[in-house]
Amino acid sequence: MLVHKISEVKEKIKEWNGLKIGLVPTMGALHEGHLSLIKKAKETCDKVVVSIFVNPIQFGPSEDYDKYPRTLENDMELCNKERVDLVFAPSPSEMYGENIRLSNDNLTYVCPPFFYVNKLCGKSRVGHFDGVCTVVLKLFNIVQPDCAFFGQKDAQQVIIIKKMVKDLNVPVQIIQCPIVREESGLALSSRNKYLSENGKKEALVLSQILNNIKACYKKGITDIEALKETAYSYLTDKHELEYLEILDKNTLEENQNANENSIALIACRVENVRLIDNIYLGEI
Ligand code: AMP
């Protein structure tokens, strides 16, 4: 069932009183990565809500908000196949009001701590995680789920959301799901649609670099600079590296040496498409 209005969601969840509700927040253009979250939600909850909303306040002025793929019909087919109970696809004005100026002098934002946002994706995408936390908290308030499902693909995002939930006593359990990849190793992403066939091949360097770092760590190299240096042989002028970091997987703290709690994270542009990926170095 597809609804566009907050009031329709509220009606539905009233009917579900006492049942365990799972929410899978997405921006649509659904792929197997999203479906893995939906499947996990179906396994663990009585009712599953998928939200599909390309959230304007998490995009910077020069980012791809306008051209972000919007494929609601296909998304509905996939959701129906997975027996999703409710798809909530609001308009920006339904979420933020008519003619509202979406700036933080006019709208209440959730502002995650600087320590978590001044690195990785937050460094180049200033204000991005304010936009993410704000919309996620709004979705939690609208849907009132017991559990919400997020992918490890967006590792910084799920860490920041866990922090928000803890700091603001939000009564929602955050469930993190593993990265789904193509057989080639490429992490699935709605933005892969922007890549040419050749670009998709070039994009394999992200997972190759991460796998190689993990292999080197397993062989006993723990010095972070030494591990990061192993990446350079993979990069050509087709790749514009934005960051490669090895941090603590729970706190995003820097260590001098990698350990079983380390995560390697990469962002790299290929054909001017910004791609991200990450890998845990220890056993999960
Ligand atoms: P998005 O539509 O890009 O906002 O993603 C919605 C949710 O799907 C987020 O929690 C993402 O982390 C998750 N997701 C996206 N791609 C993948 C993937 N390849 N594997 C697992 N989860 C993913």
Descriptive overview:
The strands form two sheets. The protein has a six-stranded parallel β-sheet, with helices on both faces. It has a three-stranded antiparallel β-sheet with strand order 7-8-9. The chain is an alpha/beta fold. The model has no long low-confidence stretch (mean pLDDT 96). It is globular. Helix 7 (128-143) crosses helix 8 (155-167). The relative contact order is 0.13. It has helices at residues 6-15, 32-44, 72-81, 92-96, 114-117, 120-124, 128-143, 155-167, 197-202, 204-218, 224-229; strands spanning 2-3, 21-26, 47-52, 86-88, 147-151, 173-177, 239-248, 262-270, 273-280. The protein has eleven helices and nine strands. The protein binds adenosine monophosphate (AMP). The site of adenosine monophosphate (AMP) has 17 residues, from helix 2 and strand 5.
The helix count comes to 11
What is the 3D shape?
A: globular
In whole angstroms, the N-to-C terminal distance is 36 Å
**Small-molecule binders:** adenosine monophosphate
List SSEs in N-to-C order. EHEHEHEHHHHEHEHHHEEE
Which residues form runs of ≥5 with pLDDT under 50? none
Structural class designation: alpha/beta
Radius of gyration: 19 Å
Number of strands: 9
Report the sheet-strand fraction.
Answer: 15-25%
Largest sheet entry: 6 strands, parallel
| Sequence of strands across the biggest β-sheet | 1-4-3-2-5-6
Question: What is the percent of helical residues?
Answer: 25-40%
Q: Overall pLDDT, averaged?
A: 96
